[in-house]
Amino acid sequence: MAYELNNKLSKLKPYDPIEGEYKIRLDANESYINLNDSLSDIISTEITKLDLNRYPDPYATKAVNAFADFYGIDNKFVTAGNGSDELISIITSCFLESGDKVVTLTPDFSMYAFYGSLYELEVLKFAKDNDTFETDCDKLIDYCKNNKAKMLIFSNPCNPTSIGIDRESILKIVKSLSCLVVIDEAYMDFWDQSILSEVKYYDNLIILKTCSKAIGLAGIRFGFAVAGETVTTALKAAKSPYNTDLVSQKLIEVAFSNPDILKANTQQIIVSTKAFYYSFVALANNYSCLEKIYKTSTNFIFIKTNKAKEIYTELLKQSIAVRCFDGYLRISTGTEEENATVLKKFEKIIRNY
């Protein structure tokens, strides 16, 4: 008799990234700056010193300390994870129980709802304005209260829209709710509205930080959860003992121990993104198929166009990968040369529309 998957697994589909080799990859919001270009000697030396026959530090103490020093917070509030995805998985599976209600925003990062469904939570989606993608925070608060939500989770600034909610409004949400509030600040290094310093004042707040965007270490899968002591203790108890590996811990320690390089790289990306944004605004002024270019607080551009699928397909033919949604394109900032190439190819394509 053949084994049958249960209902929740039988309905799942594997994550579907763009496959193949492309000359320009602007589809995943990665940093275009490789830390190996500036830190390769230090990294190489430090890696050769590691005792690879030994298990890693279960709490990634040196990496956590370097991260905490970089952001000016107390290390006792920090938990290291195998990327933000692992931390989202731990939070949704351990802080909530089957049938509990979790509120996400739409549109937003799809993995919040994915993990909620996987762990048999009732996932409720609060819709943003369907044109501006702004969030009415008062209505969101009421929505969570009226539905007796056990958790609210969303990204700020938002992936994929690039729109951010200001610091004052975020704090109002946290103060107004008794449920767990999880704010994913994956792109906050590119904006100035972080509430990271406020974590110690709220026992219902978790902030997620990634090393895959501004820090430029998407390839090693490392993230952090920042929360009050009670929640942090629970996170460390719930995670697997050796959830981050020895090599990744050392790379994170080295990266955050060189703050001047990280800050300079981030500023370079901010300047590059701003120039990229205004280039698309100029195109939108000349081509009506580009309906809206959203002002960005991230390292990517979000574009509304009724020709999204067509443009996306044509760019792939030119060996350029971007992200396509229904009626929208998301394009990460690349190097100066990559951005210039994309803009040139992009304009050539939209002339036909």
What's the N-to-C terminus distance?
Answer: 56 Å
Assign a percent range to the helix content: 40-55%
- Shape designation: globular
How are helices and strands ordered from N to C?
Answer: HEHHEHEHEHEHEEEHHHEEHEEEH
Derived from helix and strand composition plus strand pairing, the structural class reads alpha/beta
Tally of alpha and pi helices:
12
Read across the widest sheet, the strand sequence of neighbours is: 2-8-7-6-5-3-4
Give the number of DSSP strands. 13
| Percent strand | 15-25%
Oligomer: single chain
Q: What value does the average pLDDT take?
A: 96
**Biggest sheet overview:** 7 strands, mixed
- Radius of gyration (CA) equals 21 Å
- Low-confidence segments, ≥5 residues, pLDDT <50? none
Give a verbal description of the structure.
By secondary structure, the protein is α/β, with parallel strands linked by helices. It has 12 helices and 13 strands. It has helices at residues 7-10, 36-48, 61-71, 83-94, 111-118, 137-146, 167-176, 229-238, 246-256, 259-286, 308-317, 336-350, and strands at 24-25, 78-81, 101-106, 122-127, 151-155, 180-184, 205-210, 223-227, 290-294, 300-305, 320-321, 323-325, 328-332. The protein has a 7-stranded mixed β-sheet with strand order 2-8-7-6-5-3-4. It has a 4-stranded antiparallel β-sheet with strand order 9-10-13-12, covered by helices on one side. Helix 7 (167-176) links the parallel strand 5 (151-155) and strand 6 (180-184). Helix 3 packs parallel to helix 9. The longest helix is centred in the last third of the chain and has 28 residues, at 259-286. The radius of gyration is 21 Å and the shape is globular.
